[in-house]
Write a structure and sequence with these properties.
The complex is a heterotrimer of chains A (165), B (105) and C (551).
Chain A (H helix, E strand, L loop, with lengths): L2 E3 L2 E3 L4 E2 L11 E4 H13 L4 E5 L17 E6 L6 H12 L5 E6 L6 H7 L3 E3 L4 H4 L1 H6 L15 H7 L4
Parallel strand pairs in A: 3-4, 4-5, 5-6, 6-7, 7-8
Antiparallel strand pairs in A: 1-2, 1-8
Chain B lengths: L2 E8 L5 E4 L5 E2 L11 H10 L9 E10 L6 E2 L2 H8 L21
Antiparallel strand pairs in B: 1-2, 1-4, 2-3, 4-5
Chain C lengths: L5 H22 L5 H9 L3 E3 L4 E5 L5 E3 H14 L3 E4 L5 E3 L7 H10 L16 E2 L14 H11 L14 E4 L13 E7 L5 E7 L11 E8 L3 H15 L10 H8 L1 H15 L8 H10 L13 H9 L1 H10 E3 L5 E6 L10 E3 H14 L3 E4 L5 E7 L3 H10 L14 E2 L14 H10 L3 H7 L4 E4 L13 E8 L2 E8 L11 E2 L4 E2 L3 H15 L6 H8 L2 H10 L1
Parallel strand pairs in C: 6-7, 7-8, 16-17, 17-18
Antiparallel strand pairs in C: 1-2, 2-5, 3-14, 4-5, 4-13, 8-9, 9-10, 11-12, 12-15, 14-15, 18-19, 19-20, 19-21
Helix pairs in contact in C: 1-2, 1-4, 3-12, 5-9, 6-8, 7-8, 10-11, 12-13, 14-16, 16-18
The chains are: A alpha/beta (165), B alpha+beta (105), C alpha+beta (551).
The structure holds protoporphyrin IX containing FE and iron/sulfur cluster.
């Protein structure tokens, strides 16, 4: 699947493994189940590892292990299942997770901006057309009213910095 | 055997439309394509659930009608109202463009 | 009232461009209807029975004359010359075209209006007390906090795809005119022991299929923590609210299944992490918003106005209007005027474009160019000099808006029902019209006194039937329109959910049934008793007997 990082199509060096797949060389992303049942074996491999959470699996379940992951992939089974927005906020704000937070599943351009604001920085999309729309999708609304996990400054902060009229 | 027709709302303005006997879509019940067999009905519905059809209409579905006396009439209250417009006056007070329709008849 | 600054303007304009682009992508086939639907809903555009419907936000129900004129313009230019004011203090246009919707939104943006989040599973328009800023029993003007919430909730990235819609209401007065206990979150302004002003936070109320009265989650929330506390509630709900069943997805179901204690613990735990974050409201920001809502410059006036008394004596119609449609203002010499959108036999809440224009003019002449929309589907002019009441009334009478029935039986709430709504089982509007015709004798209505009839065309309860003294709910019985009746509901500070009286009545019989209920009430009430009091005392039995013995 095409992957968007920093606004452009990027090489995906990660392999996502289903629970029944054999382990492979190189960086892999495993499910929460697999992580929980094969934790020691996975750690002993000494290659970068990522974890993929379903929309009913909160990152709080991994709170103590987060520093072991380079990628946390959050699943959108349907674009309108919005739980992962909160999970991304928790990863960034609560757990100060510095690795990649990847949106996977039904990831559409009309949600790029929301996802980015919540702390996602990688997006698996269905086709490359979505990447072409990236720039527009994240810039078509330039004002934000609330603090998020991104670098945008909310209107409140900008207003307070403005020279008195 | 219930007799059915295929209805939807037009994409551009939301108007109630029916699959026309002459092909395409019509706003007139009287011009709609009457579907007698379940197979015909299913096939016509499937034909309206394609990406091409979705450029013209939204939410196609089959509705029962009564055409026993030759005239096509809805069976359900909801479809009477869809066919004829709201049964009440619009707005408050007098209005030239106001054409309330009655449910009766 | 609040005025947009450059940030607000930019956002709303960008949103219009974004939606224009989305509409183009739908028309060209790039977006499927399934993908487009949530996008259009997030801009207030529904598809109804006969056409699209555009719901325009009237934040906390406050409009300027300029905005009202623009609504009239939109009604004429893009619709069939009228609009429908709703119980959520918004306005709906029933006949816009999809292709023209971006133009409508662009026109509205010119006057600082939008349709953002008037539908969809996001935080909806925050509602408030229609007498805000004018009520004598008010701690502070709640609209200040409504505006703060409006901004915080607008395009909130985390809460755009909640399990279900989310409605917040704020009141600053003891007498609850905003129905805060039947909202997902209700905020009741209050003082703590130290005399500081904050909020009692109520959570998990709602109507719909399962009516629930909200419970207090926090007795006192200091103002500066308002947003962090709301964010904590929403974050818990977004993660734990049910997504497998549309009918169990509202926060009320989560609060009930968790239990309020456990739900409170979850929220307080989340809050402890974000309380001191950038969400904390600086007091100068509160003051900045407060400035916009500072009261108009009142003149120093005597509270007793001779001209008014003379006119009341001379003109019985005027006197009758003053009696029902004029309420006390906190400022001597001023009054609050309710403009009834319930003329006998007309659709409740509808206003024609020419009426909107007239109201805009009258507000400009007599009420600081400000208009309120009430959750009872009326309009309010909040700051009218008593000496101007007669002129105002004359102006309203010229445009058929002087019906003297505010708070009386014919001041009903009715949802659009099967005349417009895709989800309806039965019609609401014609039932309301027939009831108002049956009781058209005003003397009789005065005799009956304050009585609230509320009508919904299906179980979604947009017409608030659960909290009507008499509630009518449209049900489908083998393809026929029937109405289930509930009695004893109430939406004020003594919120109560009505009780079902028995088997439903047909479209033809339902007006007789309402009349039987009213007659029974009159028969049993003791001096000065309101419907709810009588009902509590005598229960369902006498009503049942009258209704089902006779039919
Ligand atoms: C005409 C198109 C409308 C549609 C399709 C619609 C749809 C719905 C639905 C599905 C619900 C149930 C939500 C739930 O229980 O989860 C609902 C509730 C509600 N709607 Fe509407 N509605 C419409 C019009 C209106 C209007 C005109 C008003 C105001 C007069 C309104 C005000 C409300 C209110 C107050 C509720 C109850 C909120 C609650 O459950 O807490 N709606 N609506
Ligand atoms: S109560 Fe039902 S019929 Fe009435 S507007 Fe709401 S959804 Fe439609």
């Amino acid at each position: 699947m095409p992957l968007i990082k920093e606004g452009v199509l990027a090489e995906d060096s990660w392999q996502a493994l289903a629970d029944e797949d054999e382990l492979v060389e190189g960086p892999i992303v495993v499910t929460l189940d697999r992580w929980q049942s094969e934790r020691e074996a996975l750690l002993s491999r000494n290659t970068p590892i990522g974890v993929r959470l379903k929309s009913d699996q909160t990152p709080a379940l991994l709170a103590d292990d987060l520093d072991r992951f380079a990628v946390v992939a959050l699943e959108f089974p349907k674009f309108n299942d919005g739980r992962a927005y909160s999970y991304a906020r928790l990863l960034r704000d609560r757990y100060a997770f510095k690795g990649e937070v990847r949106a996977v599943g039904n990831v559409l351009r009309d949600q790029f901006l929301l996802m980015q604001r919540c702390g996602f920085d990688a997006f698996e999309v269905a086709n490359e057309a979505a990447a072409a729309a990236w720039e527009k999708a994240i810039s078509e609304i330039s004002v934000t009213y609330q603090p998020g996990a991104d670098a945008r400054r909310p209107a409140l902060a900008l207003r307070r910095n403005r020279p008195a009229a | 055997m219930t007799v059915q027709i295929l209805t939807a709302n037009r994409l551009g303005d939301g108007a109630v439309v029916y699959r026309a006997q002459a092909g395409g879509w019509t706003e007139r019940l009287s011009e709609s394509l009457v579907l007698v067999s379940t197979e015909d009905a299913a096939e016509t519905l499937a034909g309206a659930e394609t990406p091409e059809a979705s450029l013209e209409i939204v939410g196609p579905y089959l509705m029962p009608v009564d055409n026993s006396d030759g005239e096509i009439r809805p069976v359900e209250t909801r479809e009477f109202i869809r066919a004829k417009g709201p049964s009440v006056a619009f707005g408050n007070g007098h209005q030239a463009e106001n054409t309330p329709l009655s449910l009766a008849g | 009232m609040y005025r947009y600054d450059e940030f607000d303007h930019t956002l709303v304009n960008e949103r219009v461009h974004q939606f224009r682009d989305q509409v183009e992508r739908r028309l060209s086939g790039e977006l499927t209807e399934d993908q487009f639907k949530p996008l259009r809903l997030m801009n207030g555009l529904y598809l109804q029975l006969h056409a699209y419907m555009l719901r325009v936000a009237v934040p906390y129900g406050t409009l300027s004359s300029t905005q009202m004129r623009k609504l009239a313009y939109v009604a004429r230019r893009y619709d069939k010359g009228y609009g429908h004011f709703t119980t959520r203090q918004n306005i709906q246009f029933n006949w816009p075209k999809l292709e023209e919707t971006p133009d409508i939104l662009a026109d509205l943006a010119e006057v600082e209006m939008h349709a953002i989040q008037t539908s969809g599973n996001c935080i909806r328009n925050t509602t408030s007390d229609q007498f805000a800023g004018a009520a004598a029993d008010e701690i502070e003007d709640p609209r200040v906090y409504c505006e703060i919430i409006r901004q915080w909730s607008t395009l909130h990235p985390e809460f755009t795809f909640l399990p279900r819609k989310f409605k917040i209401a704020v009141t600053g007065a003891d007498h609850d005119r905003a129905a805060v206990r039947v909202h997902d979150i209700g905020l009741q302004m209050c003082r703590n022991e130290a005399g500081e002003v904050g909020f009692e936070v109520v959570v998990g109320g709602g109507l719909g299929r399962t009516p629930v009265i909200g419970q207090t989650i926090r007795e006192f929330l200091p103002k500066q923590h308002l947003l962090s506390y709301l964010e904590a509630i929403l974050r818990v709900y977004n993660q734990l609210g049910r997504r497998d069943n549309l009918y169990k997805a509202r926060i009320k179901i989560l609060v009930r299944s968790e239990g309020i204690e456990s739900f409170r613990n979850l929220v307080e735990e989340e809050w402890s992490h974000i309380k001191e974050s950038a969400l904390q409201l600086p007091l100068d920001e509160i003051a900045r918003i407060e400035n916009y809502f500072s009261p108009p410059r009142y003149e120093r006036l005597d509270d007793t106005v001779r001209e008014l008394e003379v006119k009341r004596f001379e003109d019985r119609d005027f006197a009758s209007w003053v009696r029902t449609n004029v309420s006390t203002h906190k400022q001597p010499g001023y009054a609050v005027a309710t403009i009834s959108l319930k003329p006998t036999g007309k659709p409740p809440g509808d206003a024609s474009a020419w009426q909107m224009d007239a109201v805009a003019d009258l507000a400009e002449s007599y009420s600081h160019s400000e208009i309120r929309v009430t959750h009872e589907q009326n309009l309010v002019l909040a700051h009218v000099k008593k000496a101007d009441l007669y002129a105002l009334w004359s102006g309203l009478r010229d445009v058929e808006l002087a019906t003297p029935n505010a708070g009386l039986l014919s001041d009903m709430i009715a949802c659009p029902g099967l005349d417009y709504c895709n989800l309806a089982n039965a019609r609401s509007i014609p039932v309301a019209q027939r009831i108002s015709e049956r009781f058209s004798d005003l003397e009789r209505q005065h005799d009956i006194g304050g009585l609230k009839i509320k009508i919904s065309g299906c179980i979604n309860a947009c017409g608030h039937h659960h909290v009507g003294h008499i509630g009518l709910l449209g049900v489908d019985k083998k393809g026929e329109e029937f109405y289930q009746i509930t009695l004893g509901g109430s939406a004020d500070e003594n919120t109560a959910i009505g009780k079902i009286v028995g088997p439903a009545f047909s479209y033809d019989d339902v007006v007789d049934a309402v009349e039987d209920i009213v007659d029974t009430y009159l028969e049993y009430r003791s001096d000065g008793e309101e419907f709810s009091d009588t009902f509590r005392r005598v229960g369902l039995a006498p009503f049942k007997e009258k209704l089902y013995a006779a039919h």
